[in-house]
Design goal:
mainly alpha; about 120 residues
Length: about 120
């Protein structure tokens, strides 16, 4: 890997860390006094929910990258950062529910991992 690509990967990783463990965590958890776990957002449909968020960001990036218009709110870089975080959240959700449902599969509506069975 060349130094420029390594630099950009480290840059977006730091930005993603700052968002998921800093500003977003503060926004979602500081005002209520109740700590909300990220898994709570995906407990009913963990895999489908994460894939929906990832797909939404991919479609947004496609729209931004293939058009000549400048985004009004979130930049292209913001969307790439969000996509990285949704992927990391997806991995955490997958590992959590797989550990709980070791005998379950990741596909099919009858799978506990799809229905978000948590201990």
């Amino acid at each position: 890997m060349n130094s420029e690509s390594e630099y950009f990967i480290k840059l977006i990783s730091k930005k993603a860390d700052d968002i998921i463990f800093g500003s977003k965590d503060h926004d979602y958890n500081s005002t209520t006094g109740v700590k909300v776990d990220i898994l709570d957002y995906y407990k009913n449909w963990p895999i489908e929910g994460v894939l929906h968020d990832i797909n939404r960001k991919c479609l947004r990036l496609q729209s931004l990258l293939l058009s000549d218009r400048k985004p009004n709110n979130e930049s292209i870089e913001d969307n790439f950062t969000d996509l990285l975080n949704y992927t990391r959240i997806g991995y955490a959700v997958y590992k959590h529910f797989k550990a709980i449902n070791d005998n379950s599969t990741m596909t099919g509506r009858t799978s506990n991992i799809h229905k978000g069975k948590r201990s």
